[in-house]
Amino acid sequence: xxxxxxxxxxxxxxxxxxxxxxxxxxxxxxxxxxxxxxxxxxxxxxxxxxxxxxxxxxxxxxxxxxxxxxxxxxxxxxxxxxxxxxxxxxxxxxxxxxxxxxxxxxxxxxxxxxxxxxxxxxxxxxxxxxxxxxxxxxxxxxxxxxxxxxxxxxxxxxxxxxxxxxxxxxxxxxxxxxxxxxxxxxxxxxxxxxxxxx
Amino acid sequence: xxxxxxxxxxxxxxxxxxxxxxxxxxxxxxxxxxxxxxxxxxxxxxxxxxxxxxxxxxxxxxxxxxxxxxxxxxxxx
Lengths: 198, 77
Fold this sequence. Notes:
The complex is a heterodimer. By secondary structure, chain A is an all-alpha fold. In chain A, 70% of the residues lie in helices and 0% in strands. Chain A has 2 domains: 90 residues, Rna Polymerase Sigma Factor, Chain: A (Orthogonal Bundle), CATH 1.10.1740; 92 residues, Arc Repressor Mutant, subunit A (Orthogonal Bundle), CATH 1.10.10.10. Chain A is built from 11 helices and no strands. In chain A, helix 3 crosses helix 4, helix 4 crosses helix 5 and helix 8 crosses helix 11. The radius of gyration of chain A is 20 Å and the shape is elongated. Chain B has one domain. Chain B is elongated and about 65 Å long. The N and C termini of chain B lie far apart (64 Å).
């Protein structure tokens, strides 16, 4: 059976029934399929290893608690990441409401003249690349993002999740996700650009 | 006609476009050095962050197994 087939089985109601009945094999399968993913995701959100391990255990506990009410409408992976996101918010006491207005919006606005054309030269990709290959710069810049932008960015760019999945996980509309990605990517780009050595 | 400002917004927010707009966007990137540079930055960022996450967040196999086992134990009868 290919990986893909296994993942498809996870979303069938038969499989969910097995999980609810605490079928050992089913539980082992699903835990082994997603724990690493959740753990890495937690580290990516800025938690240390001890916190990440606690967070992941919390996610599974909630998952098994609410499983009887799980309607196989969304994929188990999407469901798990949604729980992870909510737990991470609680952990960080962050209220990830998308704000109406952010500094990055002004910074972007200022890059363009009244016709919407770039006012200044955009850094040569060769120079920009040196910075994106510098791990310290990457780390510093991602640290500065708020949780919801960090999560939107990494789900999209690192894990290649689809738009619908990410919207479900973050509980936002497509428009809202667009704003999160716009801000995340432009903040990162500005941050990286500011660290290019002259 | 899409302006540079609109192009950057479309690119960074991953907006899905209809064919006509997509063609316009591609033409714009061919002609406009600024936007083409900007687009390359986004691509380089994606690569850089992917590499970073892979390198930084390696999980030791035995630690992962330990974590998985404890979760399985907790949730099975």
